[in-house]
Amino acid sequence: MTRSIHLASLFLSLAWAAQPSMARAQASCPGATSEAATARRWPAPLDRLITMHEREVSLRDALDRLAAAARVRLAYSADLLPLDRRVCAVYRSVAAGTALTELLDGVAVEPVVADSDRVVLAPTSATKATANAPAPTLTQRAGVLERVVVTGTVNGSAQRAVPVALDVIDGRELQRRDAHSLSNVLNGAVPGVWVWEQSPSSLLASYASIRGASSFGLSYPKVYVDGIEVANSLLVTTLDVESVDHVEVIRGPQGAALYGADAISGVVNIVTRHDGVDGGAPRAELRTGAGMAGSIYAPSGVLTQRHSLMVRAGSGVGSASLGLSASTLGDFIPDAYDHRFTVTGSGRHVGRVAIVSGTARFLAEDAASPPSPVLANVAGDDSLATPSPGDSAVHQSVRQYTLGGTATVRQRDRWTHTAVIGVDGYSLNDASAFGTPFTSAADSALRAARGSAVRGTARLSSVAQLGTWNRLAGAATLALEHSAVREANRLPTTFGPDSPPGEYGVTERTTRSRSNTGVIGQVNGSFRDALFLSYGVRFEHSAGSADIDRNSTLPMLGAAFVQDFGRAAVKFRVAYGKGIRPAATTIRTTSWMGERGSEGAPNLAPEEQSGVEAGVDLLVGRVLGFHVTRFDQLASGLIQPVAVSSSGPGPGGGGGGGGGGSGGSGPGGSGGGPNDGRRIAYELQNVGEITNRGWEVSGSAGAHGLTVSTAYAIVDSRVRRLAERYTGDLRAGDRMLAVPERTLSATASYARGPWSASVTGSRAFDWVNYDRIALADAVESPDRPPRDLVGDQLRTFWRLYPGVNRLRANVSFDLRRALSLVATADNLLNHQFGEPDNVTVLPGRTIAGGLRARF
Questions:
Q1: pLDDT digits (tens, 9 = 90+) for 793-837
Q2: How far is the C-alpha of 751 from the C-alpha of 22, rounded, in Å?
Q3: 710 contacts: CB under 8 Å, gap ≥ 6
Q4: Among 432, 490, 700, 796, which is most buried by a count of CB atoms within 10 Å?
């Protein structure tokens, strides 16, 4: 630890740097504006004098700080203001009205006094708002580049200066689309990221690709909620979009310099809403809806419903919210169901020098996941037929919670200090894991994941603005982060000689503690608000229970150049990054492949990925955007659960049930009956080196209430070199299994008057995966010894999946100002099969309707 701090201190002593500056900062921020003499021309309370020192902040934060300094309540519509736009607010003894007018220059609103301490930002004509503007302002530049993001740097900056491909998904857009599942949130908005459509009764997310493969069957990003690390990223399968302000996504290892180990694939940061309501009095929004989900296994359909209530109170200076939601789905396949309940809460207080916010969430989900009915007639064996109700389904459950807060303190316009402290934990029972070829209806391995974990996160950071000189601006950042997790798991190891089908005789109970400590240094420089350089490095120490004790250096280097053409801009960017994932992680522990896999873990090398991305962004205000990115990454040490033959009762269990499991690929070995002496066990092995190369293209255009967006990616994920001791079925030159070659999505949205509607289509194309029906038949056949189902023999069960088209739509109509009708249709083309394999079953066409009331 002392060595890391010494290196970080040396790094900062050699650094010159800058946080990105901005056009207005160069004009008005070098010295504070002083205008006390003009205070009397404003009516009370706009005549109150304020002093502010806010550089490179969002318009939302600037307005909240101004309201706190002037002791007023601001009321405005979020639809009228570019609240994520970066602004500069450095004033000394200036009337609040003068500061407001300057901050809102070019925006079609004006301050109107409504009460002794209440000011409304009322709409006005755009012509009036800009008639007297003496020079181009930020609102006349490419708006998307001026929004402030928090994932690209330690304390946030304008997206203009971020050298990596960073996608921001707006929470209000997710509400309009009624997009709750992770696949609906990411697949339609982020090129290069693809989440498999999951059975609603699956408790774990399944990522097909994040710029290719960063692990075997366990590729996933590092997920944060308001800067608090989630203990298990795969447990984030849905979002309560009513509580989400926006979602920020970084793809690739470039984010590891800031976020440390396990950010090898990328980072997802879910930012919750902290906005108040007009007038500050409590307001509520109720959504209720129900419908029918079709299925070939339920000809009359099954009931699905979702209800939510969100209560908000306060203003921008101080706000609080509480949200509740509940959803259910019936047996779209025999014996399946899913019940989900969530609670979210948030609070925020803005003071003159500090902003303090808190967030909390709780999730309870119970689901029944029977074996896939597709396997009912495999090998003509009656033992594989779907058992009677009460015997076939494995009852899964998860309880997950997050609690934490953030405090930001600004010392004049030079220093910004931030502290984030929080915990995230879960309790998981009988959840399916994945990553192996076998699926069996006789042995369900959904019971393979039992346990709990609690992760605590603490991060302290300080940013020093070095001011501007000759059109150069500079800042330096130092941060210290510590994360610790304690896990308790129960994992199956053997079958008892008298164990009934699907039940384990011996269970391994393990308790592990792991921690990561990182010292982060980051420097950023800008010249004329057009050329941006960024360098960051994280010195990290990982410690754990005997199998983890290593030091890592994770660098990131990037550059961006932006050329403005009035409201249009072209941005060129390039970045390099390196990430690492230890062999033993909480998520991999959740899906251990039995005793042999656990014992092999200490001898495994960590998974690593490094590479370069380069791209071009073309933007015209917030109306038109076009983005192209080329990436070239090298992943090494990828870990695969390799099938090995084992005679007699031994490690392994059955594969996960395809109906409710994660892609129908459970974590255990599979054999005939549990007492027949034929078993497939697993051993965790490093595959070797994998290359992930490809292109990402996305674009959006909008006018007159109509918006069209699209995302397209081409990914070539191939084995470059095999590890010396690898005995699995992959060979050099092979495509990585279950990674689509291409993904495509498109969304059209319309909002005008009382109507709003959206349609989203998506498809993954051409991936290689196991033929799980043929494998299940081979496993159950007495003529196929276990040695025919391991190593090269498994290649005969590979097959190409072409993919299927997915289509969903929703429409709403405002009956009156506070009451709306809502209708949603999912899986309109009624595809229940086809991805990610040939045993997974999804609900068919689902039609639901409901009401949205605000009061």
A1: 899 999 999 999 999 999 999 998 889 999 999 999 999 998 899
A2: 33
A3: 698, 699, 700, 744, 745, 746, 747
A4: 432
**From edge to edge, which strands make up the β-sheet containing 86-95?**
33-34, 86-95, 49-58
Q: Which two tokens stand for residue 442?
A: 């006789």
Determine contact, residues 277/283, Cβ cutoff 8 Å.
Answer: yes
- Contact of 715 with 684, CB cutoff 8 Å: no
End-to-end CA distance of the chain: 54
Distances 176 to 173, 202, 229, 792, 810 between C-alpha atoms, Å: 5, 25, 28, 49, 8
Residue 269, number of CB atoms within 10 A of its CB: 24
Count of helices and strands (H, E) across the chain: 12, 41
- pTM score, two decimals? 0.83
Nearest to residue 371, comparing CAs of 602, 126, 655, 634?
Answer: 655
Please give the angle made by the CA atoms of 626, 627 and 632, to the nearest 5 degrees: 160
Cβ-in-10-Å burial (0-12, 13-18, 19+) of 769 comes to buried
538-559 pLDDT, tens digit per residue, is 999 988 754 556 889 999 999 9
Distance between CA 477 and CA 547 in Å, rounded?
32
**Average predicted confidence (pLDDT) for the chain:** 80
**Cβ 562 vs Cβ 648: under 8 Å:** no
DSSP 391: T
Distance in angstroms (rounded) separating the CA atoms of residues 251 and 254? 8
Type of residue found at 191: P
- What is the rounded CA–CA span in Å between residue 399 and residue 410? 37
Pairing mode, strands 73-75 and 118-123 = parallel
> Of 351-365, 426-440, 590-604, where does the model show the most confidence?
351-365
Reduced to 3 states (helix: H, G, I; strand: E, B; else coil), residue 854 is strand
User: Coil, strand, or helix at residue 376?
Assistant: helix
For tokens 């990221």, what's the residue?
193
Query: Contact, 589 vs 554, CB < 8 A?
Result: no
Q: Which residue has the tokens 């990553």?
A: 435
Tokens of 335: 């014996």
Number of neighbouring beta carbons within 10 Å of residue 92 = 15
> How many Cα atoms sit within 13 Å of 187 on the Cβ side?
31
